[in-house]
Design brief:
Elements: H1 2-20, H2 28-34, E1 43-55, E2 60-71, E3 75-76, E4 79-83, E5 89-95, E6 101-105, E7 108-112, E8 116-117, E9 122-131, E10 144-149, E11 155-160, E12 184-191, E13 195-197, E14 201-208, E15 211-218, E16 230-232, E17 234-243, E18 246-255, H3 259-265, H4 269-280, E19 290-294, E20 299-300, E21 306-308, H5 332-339
Parallel strand pairs: 1-12, 18-19, 19-21
Antiparallel strand pairs: 1-2, 2-9, 3-8, 4-7, 5-9, 6-7, 10-11, 11-16, 12-15, 13-16, 14-15, 17-18, 20-21
Length: 349
């Protein structure tokens, strides 16, 4: 009996050792991407001011990002880490502090300094970028840019990067724990026959030669993977919802030939909002409005800029995932992705 008990204990220990053994090998790149390293932990992002232009024919993008930041602790001669994944390239980089050396190591840009920074001081880093970004093979489940044509042959472009990170195209501090406290501005430059849509509210539309610049503003803190451009032959219609915090603007951007379908399908938004607010509290981003934007992939909960690609039908691409019949009474993607505005964008992401 004692031998049997001893063998049992030994077997349990061996099994537990196997279960808890960490066989994964983490690389330096993994640590730099996922950890709040010494290159990140002394500064806090306050705002991103982004400019972007996408070229459908060459499948390329170019633009700039002005990063406003605040120093969180006294530090001497620190190195700032900016994330920008290959094959994207950084161009001119300038800062409101002296950069003594600039190094690129894989997916990271390191900006060296030789000065003392004090807690509370504020600075900016301006980075130009360009290149042919990674193309998504199965968005939104894998990350990357999407360059497609709608059924009328018009360019239709966007990006999905929740897992792989916004630095797949945008130079940024790509760590989930640091959102720009004061939000973003996002200027999307398009040909005259296309529209650029991003999170928040459209604050400016201007002609730039033979192109149009669409500038959007987000006032709330926002996770990096929600900073998403959508470019296509969009038309817009609007509505309002009398919510718990007053009037909530509902903003819809859909492909021109789907306007009638969208007006019918998006009638589900108001009763959804009423239910969600009664259960979970007010929609978290009244200042930035609520938006649905038709996308060439199934959908994603981009903050105040929900991507929608369920083809204007109920269920999940016409299927009832519950096998009860209930799932065909509502549009799964509208409900699911909008729910993430509370349980993702407002809390965990």
């Amino acid at each position: 009996m004692k031998k049997l008990l001893l063998l049992s204990v030994l077997a349990m220990g061996f099994t537990q050792a196997q279960f808890f053994e960490n066989t994964e090998k983490f690389t330096k790149t993994d640590s730099l991407k996922g950890s709040n390293t010494k290159f990140r932990n002394f500064w806090d992002v306050k705002k991103y001011d982004i400019v972007l232009e996408a070229d459908f024919d060459t499948k390329s993008i170019k633009g700039s990002n002005k990063i406003s930041l605040e120093i969180e602790k006294n530090v001497t001669n620190p190195v700032f880490q900016i994330d920008l994944q290959n094959p994207m390239k950084a161009g001119k980089i300038k800062a409101s502090f002296a950069i003594t050396e600039q190094k690129v190591d894989g997916d990271f840009i390191f900006l060296h300094t030789k000065q003392t920074f004090k807690k509370g001081e504020k600075f900016t880093i301006d980075i130009d970028f360009s290149g042919n970004p990674v193309i998504a093979k199965n968005a939104p489940w894998d990350g990357g840019w999407i360059f497609k044509k709608d059924k009328n042959g018009n360019p239709w472009m966007t990006v999905a990067d929740e897992g792989i990170g916004a630095s797949i195209w945008l130079p940024t501090k790509d760590i989930w724990s640091d959102e720009p406290n004061n939000g973003t501005t996002f200027k999307i430059i398009t040909p005259r026959d296309l529209v650029g849509v991003a999170g928040g509210r459209l604050i400016k539309k201007e002609n730039i030669g033979d192109k149009i610049a669409w500038t959007w503003e987000v006032k709330n803190p926002i996770n990096n993977y929600s900073i998403i451009p959508s470019i296509g032959k969009y038309v817009n219609f609007k509505d309002t919802f009398a919510g718990e915090k007053g009037k909530l603007d509902l903003d819809y951007w859909v492909l021109d030939y789907n306007l009638d379908k969208a007006k019918k399908q998006f009638e589900q938004v108001k009763p959804m909002m009423k239910s969600f607010e009664s259960w979970f509290g007010p929609y978290p981003f009244y200042e930035d409005s609520y938006k649905l934007v038709e996308s060439p992939h199934l959908g994603m909960e981009h903050q105040s800029n929900v991507a929608y690609g369920n083809h204007y039908g109920n269920g999940y691409l016409g299927r009832d995932l519950s096998d009860t019949g209930i799932g065909l009474r509502f549009d799964y993607i509208i409900i699911h992705e909008s729910g993430h505005e509370w349980f993702a964008n407002n809390i965990t992401a």
